[in-house]
Design goal:
By secondary structure, this protein is α+β, with helices and mostly antiparallel strands. Helix content is 15%, strand content 36%. The radius of gyration is 32 Å and the shape is globular.
Length: 796
């Protein structure tokens, strides 16, 4: 994920998101399973124009014993001041004992060609990890090269030599390099030399990379070059560059099955079932006979009792520790926890397979095989046909982190190694429901309570934020949560069953707002939505919107439901219910309904993402953007007040609600208004100006338009613009007619030389929440036959 983890994006506030980081760390990092990568380009967060350019040249010499030497020269041309700070200190990592790194040359090349060398004192080698992590990564080292006298126009040059002494798998060599367009490469050249007798597989993927093969005596040489291409900033939320950008893969493995067998040979013996493990398994499952129930109990015990700690020493980067050692230490990384859980399951006669998977935005396994995308280990239970991840300590049994769904995997068992795919998410398995009840007293004081429950990935996050609430303190967390929602006040959370890894998880709270709700006798007001911990319907599942998206992006299936009931004390003005809303999109559906029963306003909103897999094509962005805007507007609408206040509740409460269909049918669609327009041929013409104003003539928000029917013989442009309003004199807003206001303009341009009849239909959603459809019958006439074409009457 970019910038925020998925847990932080689904949590409802910055306050709680910031607290999630220390409790989320139940996932292996890439370095746990992937071979340490040789020094390469260090990307800078780019702006609209590239702040630097990079020239990259490297040469691999792979020997018959699968060791190798790599000599790389990189040249960074500084084009903007913002690139000086991140590039003038280069950081290179390597694993002591497995690799040896030597800096052959480093200097700053000035614009006039003068070279200012990096002094030996400015080349620093130190431990590559700090804090508690350093205890377990003592052989990870970092080389820091500090360039002197760096200015815009200079070029930073360094040449490094790396000896690859031993790979993660004995007797095997592999390497992967990706060339994303967000790194402004002026040129790249990679030479790979190896004995012809060595079965070395070299492959380029994607466009722009070419591989020229030469043979000289007993040596085969691959010369890989990258063609020049335009620099493009990284798209937020895109799938991994390995799935979409030019990539070079080098490997002595023939297949992922062969790689899986290499992992099996070293890893499976670590899951030996000892008497101590048998005794523990019997204790955990005491009184439980059902195999699935036993597996659930073992999974829960693992998540509660074996904490996650990264152990990256030597071959421990890819091979787990003994299950008995993990049990004794009560900690381990992802493969350690999978190994111990596998042993406990085996002690009860439950078969399991270790699974190598990517826990990120990569959804392919590019060949030839490398560990470039395999960075995590989980389990598969064939008898139950489900995957389990003991490292996601906040998940229920069989629930994975969202990045683990719909992923290619390598499954390893005593029977061999197979390729498979984890299941895709379904809306029925991942649900979030929140219900808020609010009371507005006669003096405007607001109090209420919220209950939220989640299953699947929503259950994971609710447990995570419950831990953050517990660490911060219930009252303090409530206060900060309300402040972040712009409704300051006090409250308290009841964390319920959040300490148990069972779905659904339910959290309740109660709150009192600091500010009184001022309800106008005639006008609009915003009604608070409670104190939920997670994001509201329409957020998270389909990611963040990005106009003009070019790359596929991760997307998730799930269901979010929100119910809010607001009861107003006698004597207060009552809100007018909004029209029910129904949006049917190829990727999702949204339903909302509003009704008033007695003195209670009841709101229901439901968002269901129905994507069939966890990667969505770039073109889906265009298909969902406008509808997602409509969802957001409907979620945050204001209410018109103008109902008659009563001194006491009526004996027979009157039900006033927005028009809606029978319960079994879809909500009634907005009414359709008819309009006619005459347009001269071969001319653009504004056919409408649509606006929405406050009583003081201000425009806090513009109406949202969705084109339902495009013209057949012309083009329609929907643009922000200005115009004069047309309120009748009896309307207090008639004073607004004297000056231009902001609004939305519809401009129609007929096709060249077209004369005849056309039509357009748009749906208009006003900030108040009301909606209408408007159908325009357009007559396009020859210019000479049109004496005058009046401007359309603006509408609100």
């Amino acid at each position: 994920m970019n910038t925020l983890t998925w847990k932080q994006r689904i949590a409802g506030t910055v306050m709680l998101a910031g607290l999630l980081a220390p409790i989320i760390g139940a996932l292996c990092s890439t370095s746990a399973l992937a071979q340490a990568q040789p020094p390469g380009p260090v990307p800078v967060t780019p702006g609209p124009q590239a702040p630097y350019t990079l020239t990259y040249a490297t040469r691999f010499t792979v020997r018959a014993d699968k060791t190798a030497t790599q000599i790389s020269t990189v040249r960074y041309k500084i084009l903007a001041p913002g690139a000086i700070q991140p590039l003038s200190q280069q950081r290179l990592s390597y694993v002591e004992g497995m690799e040896r790194l030597e800096t052959l040359e480093a200097y700053t090349e000035k614009a006039d060609g003068t070279k200012v060398p990096v002094q030996p004192a400015s080349i620093i080698t130190r431990d590559g990890a700090s804090g508690s992590v350093a205890t377990y990564t003592r052989d990870l080292k970092e080389r820091i090269i500090i360039f002197p006298n760096v200015e815009v126009g200079d070029t930073l040059v360094m040449t490094n030599k790396e000896e690859m002494l031993r790979g993660l798998f004995p007797g095997q060599f592999y390497y992967a390099d990706t060339f994303p367009r967000s790194i402004p490469l002026a040129s790249a050249r990679i030479v790979v030399e190896a004995p012809k007798t060595l079965d070395l597989h070299v492959k380029t993927l994607g466009t722009g990379l070419t591989d020229q093969i030469e043979e000289s005596g007993a040596i085969r040489r691959h010369i890989v070059t990258l063609a020049a291409r335009p620099y493009v900033p990284e798209e937020p939320g895109a799938v991994s560059p390995l799935d979409r950008e030019p990539t070079l893969l080098i490997s002595t493995f023939k297949s992922y099955q062969e790689m899986g067998l290499a992992y099996r040979a070293a890893a499976l013996p670590k899951a030996a079932v000892t008497p101590e493990i048998v005794s523990l398994a019997n204790e955990i499952t005491k009184g439980i006979e059902n195999k699935k129930a036993q597996a659930i109990a073992i999974d829960a015990w693992m998540k509660k009792n074996i904490r996650y700690v990264a152990v990256y020493l030597s071959l421990g980067r890819v091979i787990p520790n003994d299950a008995s050692a993990v049990l004794r230490n009560k900690f381990g990384d992802c493969k350690d926890k999978a190994t111990l859980m596998s042993a406990l399951l085996a002690a009860k006669g439950i078969a399991s397979e270790e699974v190598l998977i990517n826990l990120g935005n990569a959804y392919t396994l590019p060949e030839p095989p490398t560990m470039a995308v395999l960075n995590h280990a989980i389990l598969y239970l064939p008898e139950l046909d489900l995957y389990a991840d003991p490292t996601v300590t906040q998940s229920a049994f069989g629930v994975l982190a969202p990045e683990a769904y719909d992923k290619p995997v390598v499954r390893v068992s005593a029977a061999g190694a197979t390729l498979a795919r984890t299941p895709a998410m379904t809306a029925q398995q991942h649900t979030y429901r929140v219900r808020t009840v609010i009371d507005v007293a006669a003096d405007g004081a607001v109090s209420g309570r919220t209950e939220e429950s989640g299953t699947g990935v929503f259950g994971i996050v609710l447990r995570s934020v419950a831990g953050a609430v517990q660490n911060l303190g219930s009252e303090t967390a409530a206060q900060r949560q309300l402040q972040s929602l712009n409704t300051p006040g006090t409250g308290r959370y009841e964390l319920g069953n959040s300490a148990e890894a069972m779905d659904p998880v339910t959290i309740r709270n109660a709150f009192n707002l600091q500010e009184r709700l001022r309800l106008p006798s005639s006008g609009v007001a915003y009604i608070p939505h409670g104190m939920p911990l997670l994001v509201r319907p329409g957020n998270f599942l389909l990611g963040n919107r990005l106009s003009g998206r070019k790359s596929a992006f991760p997307c998730y299936a799930g269901q979010q439901t929100e119910d809010i009931e607001v009861t107003f004390a006698p004597g207060l003005p009552m809100p007018m219910p909004l029209m029910s809303r129904a949006i049917n999109n190829p990727a999702f559906t949204y339903r909302s309904s509003y009704r008033v029963e007695g003195r209670t306003l009841k709101m229901h909103r439901e968002f269901i993402s129905r994507v069939s897999g966890q990667t969505c094509p770039a073109e889906l962005e265009t298909q969902i953007t406008e509808d997602i805007k409509l969802v957001a507007l409907n979620m945050n609408n204001v209410f018109n007040f103008g109902g008659v206040a009563s001194a006491a509740p009526a004996k027979q409460p009157q039900v006033v609600e927005a028009p809606r269909a029978a319960p079994s049918a879809a909500p009634k669609q907005p009414q359709t208004q008819e309009a006619t327009r005459v347009v001269p041929s071969d001319q653009k013409r504004r056919i409408d100006f649509i606006y929405w104003l406050e009583p003081d003539c201000s425009t806090p928000e513009l109406p949202v338009l969705r084109v339902v029917e495009q013209p057949r013989s012309g083009k329609l442009a929907v643009e922000r613009g200005t115009g004069f309003t047309n309120f009748p004199q009896t309307n207090p807003r008639s004073e607004c007619n004297r000056r231009k206001s902001e609004g939305v303009t519809l401009v129609f341009e007929p096709n060249p030389h077209f004369v005849g009849i056309d039509s357009i239909t748009v749906e208009i959603l006003y900030p108040s929440g009301s909606a209408v459809k408007r159908h325009y019958a357009i007559e396009v006439k020859a210019v000479e036959s049109v004496s005058s074409v009046p401007n359309p009457t603006p509408t609100n």
